[in-house]
Every structure is written in C-alpha cells, then in structure tokens.
Amino acid sequence: MQDQPFSFTKSFVLPAFLLFLIPLINGAFFYHAQSSMDDEYRDFALKQIATSADLTAEQKTQLSEVYRTIPLSTLAQDPEFAAELPSQTVFDLQFYRWSILTSVVCVDRQLA
C-alpha cells in the first residue's frame, strides 16, 4: 500500500516522459553529428581554398564566403554538389537529416 502513490507515476508519467525524451535526445545527437561534420568539412575546404595555386584571390574570397556561410549539409542537398562528394558522406548527411526530421515529427505528434 505504501507504493501506491508512485504507481501512477511509474505507470503513466514516466512512460510519457520517456516517449518525449527519447526523440529529443535522438534529435540532439544527430544535430550534433551533422554540425560536427559541417564544421570539419568547412575547415577542410577553407584550408584547400587557401592553399590552392589554381585560384585567383577573388575566387578564393568568393569560395571561402560560400563555405563559411552555407554548411555542407545544405550544400549536399543539391544533386550536382552531392555527386562530387563521396557516397558515404552523402549517405551520412541524408541519414542525419532524416533522423532529425523523424525526431521533430515524433515530438510534434506527442504535443498535438
């Protein structure tokens, strides 16, 4: 009988909380993974641009601005740009994007 006040919490509140918490943690994890990949690629691209002897100073400035302002995950949505990337990178970015979207939909459906 002493356990009765907690039975409601264990039966209803905790499962509802976990159903809400798991998609949030999933979304946060994949957002972090996507952001890390974006940052690594940006740093790599900026180093390649800076050391390229084939580009003029104006081209370097323009390309550097593009890679500073547009993350890889956004650039990879363009089929022409994605064709230039390794297939595993494109797959990873699509997986992260869909995982984040799934998390958002799950949380939205729970709040509706």
Summarize the structure.
This protein is an all-alpha fold. The protein has helices at 4-51, 57-69, 72-75, 79-83, 87-111. Helix content is 85%, strand content 0%.
Helix content: over 70%
Strand-pairing-aware structural class: mainly alpha
Rough shape? elongated
How would a crystallographer describe the biggest sheet?
none
Specify the number of helices: 5
Q: End-to-end distance, in Å?
A: 35 Å
Radius of gyration, CA atoms, in whole angstroms? 22 Å
**Integer count of domains:** 1
Number of strands: 0
Low-confidence stretches: none
Order of helices and strands: HHHHH
Q: Residue-averaged pLDDT, rounded?
A: 91
Strand fraction: under 5%
Which helices and strands appear, and what pairs or packs with what?
Blueprint: H1 4-51, H2 57-69, H3 72-75, H4 79-83, H5 87-111
Describe this structure in words.
The protein is mainly α and 112 residues long. Helix content is 85%, strand content 0%. It is built from five helices and no strands. It has helices at 4-51, 57-69, 72-75, 79-83, 87-111. The radius of gyration is 22 Å and the shape is elongated. The two termini are 35 Å apart.
Keywords:
112 residues, mainly alpha, 85% helix, elongated
